[in-house]
From TrEMBL:
It comes from the Bacteria. This is Uncharacterized protein. Residues 1-17 form the signal peptide. Keywords: Signal. It comes from Gallaecimonas pentaromativorans.
């Protein structure tokens, strides 16, 4: 009975890996031609098609390819690359890319979204520094009346409540995907 269980588990894992690999190859062939909005901001398109299937490593690799091919400098691309690297377990790469998504203090002062605080809170999680995560989460809370900050607080609270877990488990629960 145990052999059957492990055989089914192995087959399921290989099927998921094959699915991710196939999706990656499909998107690699076409996505460098997509606009930034289609690739990064449209659900079901670009890297988000891979993310939806929990193909986080492949999604990260696709974003990296897109950045290289298009030379696009949008901050959200770096942020999404950081998230996908973290979801695939590569926290150091996530930290490096998240730091590239920080905005200048002048730009931050112009907008009510507590972007840099949100990014730094995530970095705190990846560095396993709960004090840092909580400190920056509390900074985001000072702008809680702004919808994006309110949404980001829910996300950060999930990280705090699941601090002992991986980023993937903190974000998606025990359904670990790939």
């Amino acid at each position: 009975m145990l052999r059957v269980f492990f055989a089914l588990l192995f087959i399921s894992f290989n099927a998921l890996a094959d699915n991710c690999s196939n999706l990656y190859e499909q998107h690699l062939a076409t996505d460098a031609k997509l606009t930034y909005e289609k690739f990064d901001q449209t659900m079901g398109e670009g890297f988000r098609a891979l993310e939806k299937e929990k193909c986080f490593l492949e999604a990260a690799n696709l974003i990296s390819f897109y950045i290289k091919e298009t030379q696009n400098k949008e901050i959200s691309l770096r942020w999404h690359l950081a998230q996908m690297r973290a979801l695939s377990g590569d926290y150091q790469s996530a930290i490096n890319n998240a730091k590239l998504s920080l905005v200048s203090s002048e730009m931050q002062a112009k907008f009510p979204i507590k972007w840099n605080d949100f990014v730094e809170a995530n970095i705190g999680f990846w560095e396993r520094d709960k004090d840092k995560l909580v400190r920056y989460r509390n900074e985001v809370s000072t702008g809680a009346k702004i919808k994006p900050n309110e949404i980001n607080l829910v996300f950060l609270d999930r990280l705090i409540n699941n601090f002992s877990e991986t980023y993937q488990v903190a974000m998606y629960g025990n359904d670990k995907g790939s």
